[in-house]
């Protein structure tokens, strides 16, 4: 099976999309991450949902989980509001990594290796310089576990 057989349409965001809108899109569509495109519609990066959380969760709670326990429930439930006016650009890692992008002819093993190497829950499938869709970890596992 090839990437073109597993790929599905997938939403994209830009670097200037608000991080809160990105979080809403992740939640509404139950996505593992988002494809971030540049001004020309080419893939710039993959934004895993965990990166959005990293921006929203206070650093002191990430550094010391015991401190997260002392925040009362009413305030703990509102942590995503910390995203405020921040953008997707601010959610991305400072040091870019290998971009998880593949050709529609990539095999399932190539996709799996790319996901593993880049720690990405999805791979953007690019054809003629544009995002044609994506293959998610879930669809890859669903396919390989049924063989």
Q: What would a concise description of this structure say?
A:
The protein has 147 residues and is α/β, with parallel strands linked by helices. The chain has helices at residues 3-6, 19-29, 49-56, 59-63, 65-69, 73-76, 88-91, 108-118, 137-145, and strands at 12-14, 33-37, 43-48, 101-102, 122-127, 130-136.
Explain how this protein is built.
There is one protein chain. The protein is α/β, with parallel strands linked by helices and 147 residues long. The chain has a single domain (3-145), classed as CBS-domain, CATH 3.10.580.10. It contains 9 helices and 6 strands, in the order αβαββαααααβαββα. It has helices at residues 3-6, 19-29, 49-56, 59-63, 65-69, 73-76, 88-91, 108-118, 137-145; strands at residues 12-14, 33-37, 43-48, 101-102, 122-127, 130-136. A 3-stranded mixed β-sheet has the order 1-2-3. The chain has a 3-stranded mixed β-sheet with strand order 4-5-6. A hairpin with a 5-residue loop joins β2 (33-37) and β3 (43-48). The longest helix is centred in the N-terminal third of the chain and has 11 residues, at 19-29. The protein is globular, with a radius of gyration of 17 Å. The N and C termini lie close together (11 Å).
